[in-house]
Amino acid sequence: MKPGDKLFEKINEAIRDCKVGIAVFSPHYCQSYFCLHELSMIMECGKKVIPIFVDVKPSELRVINNGSCPAEELVRFKEAVEEAKHTVGLTFDSSNGDWSELVRNASRAVMMNMLEVEGDRVGQKQMYAKYC
């Protein structure tokens, strides 16, 4: 991105174009409008998402109405967080975890999911070609 670009336009475009999304949840993740917006976009676009829970358990994630967000946005955010909480992800405890191991595991998970998504896409194209 460069100065003058519309932030949400660029973020939304990148999410629509991605194959796999990664959400790195921290204890304060659900307090960030930007994080919640991006997570909602990933889910609404039907992208595969790999949640990484850093210093937080999935059950601890809560979207709280602090009065600064429209009601319809809160609904979107809560639905996205609930879906992510019920998605198999990676967990990490920063007080005694190995960051390089987390990066290796996350990279492996991304690659496996990308191959799966691409495999599905290739399979769909082959089926389309076969029957059309």
UniProtKB/TrEMBL annotation:
SUPFAM superfamilies: Toll/Interleukin receptor TIR domain. Gene3D superfamilies: Toll/interleukin-1 receptor homology (TIR) domain (3.40.50.10140). GO terms for biological process: signal transduction. Pfam families: TIR. Residues 1-110 form the TIR domain. It comes from the Eukaryota. InterPro entries: TIR_dom, Toll_tir_struct_dom_sf. This is TIR domain-containing protein. It comes from Camellia sinensis var. sinensis (China tea).
